[in-house]
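Re: How this chain folds, sequence and tokenised backbone to follow
Notation: Tokens come from a learned vocabulary of local backbone shapes, not from coordinates.
Start of record: The labelled sequence and token lines come straight after this line.
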Amino acid sequence: IRKRTVLAETLASAVTIGTGGSAGIVAPIVQLGSGIGSAVGAFPRLSGAGIRTLVGCGAAAGIAAAFNAPIAGTMFALEVVLGDFGVATFSPIVISSVTATAVSRHFLGDFPAISVPSYQLVSGWELPLYVLLGFICAFIAVSFTRLFYWVGDMFNKAASPAFMKPLVGGILLGFMGLFFPHILGNGYPTIDLVMMEELSLATLFILVFFKMAATSITIGSGGAGGTFAPSLFIGAMLGGSFGAIVHRFLPEVTASSGAYSIVGMAAVVAGVTRGPFSAILMLFEMTGNYTIILPLMIACIISSSASTMLLKESMFTLKLARKGVNIHAGKEINVLKSILISEVMNRQVETIPENLPLGKLPERIAASKYNSFPVVNEQKHLVGVLSFLDYHDVLFNQDLDNLVIAGELATRSVVTVSMDDSLFTALDRITARDFSILPVVDPADPLVLRGIVTRRDIISAYNSAVLKKGILGES
């Protein structure tokens, strides 16, 4: 992680949040902690796996210190940042998280990050209501993610100078803040008001959507900051409004709206990050309230699962997915996707003219190291592929030597790849029907043959890339 990027993002986040931008401090804290871990790992020249572990240690330490939540910090680093629960990774992250929490408590005191009254599960009949809340939170989490990227795309497409975009975003945010100042900043004071049940149902409901829009505008227009605190805010407003409604109609079997606010916070975070265990533990540690753990568990799991069904990627991974990086597929897929066919294809192509008589075909095949050949016409345009399966039955039938030509034997429905395609695309197509070669065509004209790519080409390029990136040394 580049030190300059970490410093710039940290300062930009401080300015954005300090001037009222609707963003959170978690992303800057995680980035700062991860940047420190990456910098520490660079000095002893650790392997990639070692540096990743230190990045996770930094992220866990930042979360643990910021929210006085060592268990949640550990789980967040393992579940969301690294996606690795191995013992070799787990142990140093736990040590880092505990150390950061101890230092934080020494200077700031040992207090819950959010002060809440004591809530409890009033009746078993509440659990179906929390299940319903989990589904609603999933829908809101996915809507927030889609809106966030849509607003960002709109600002990126705007034909205006770069400095104008934050200005426009600030004007829009300020106009919204005139009517609902609660949406400005990280929103923690407003969350406290929800816990104390001091906001009306209408205000709670409106703030859900205003906060989604405010955060999308703040970051989409060029501001810096995280979406974790806004997700907590949105969840608190959503849970509070849901709780107010059900408590109005079922007062004897439901808790007050504050309890639903706590669960709503965790459920929306779980839907946005796809880290249900982190959300459960974080809200438990942030509130210090164990009696609400059952609703937390069921709502977070449902929200995370339902969100995944509605949108495969989380808010964090969607940005990478839009760039073509699939973090779920593993290193192998991403290595193959990073290499273009034009970098590894064989440009010296041995072609067969479509009017070549069958009698001359054995000589051409014997002189070549391939057993499959692109077939071209007089204009050198690709018209087919001649494979071993096409000619092996008639190759030595002398009665057909002057009666059959190569074009009549060739497969006309050709599977090709473009020079701009990746090796992953080539591997997918070459293995789908067990081809030995794939013709590589010009991106602008699929009839113009530029080369071929074989299985051996793909495997050799992959092995070279793996060695170059040092992946073999990381495992």
Notes: The two ends are 20 Å apart (CA to CA). The domain at 115-324 is CATH 1.10.3080.10 (Clc chloride channel). The longest helix spans residues 126-157. The chain has three domains: 1-111, 115-324, 333-469.
